[in-house]
Amino acid sequence: MALKNDLLLRALKQQDTERTPVWAMRQAGRYLPEYREVRKQAGDFMSLAKNPEMVCEVTLQPLRRFPLDGVIIFSDILTIPDAMGLGLYFVTGEGPKFKNPISSERDVDNLPKIDVNSDLQYVMDGIALTSKTLDNAVPLLGFCGSPWTLLTYMVEGGSSKTFAKAKAFLLNHSQAAHKLLQKLTDASIDYLNAQIESGANAVQVFDSWGGALSPELYQVFSLDYMKQIVAGVKSKNPETPVILFSKGVEYNLSIMADSGADCLGVDWTTDLSLARKLTSGKVALQGNLDPCVLYADDEVIESEVRKVLNSFGQGNGHVFNLGHGMHPGMQPEKLAVMVNAVRKYSKR
Question: What is the reported pTM?
Answer without folding.
Answer: 0.98
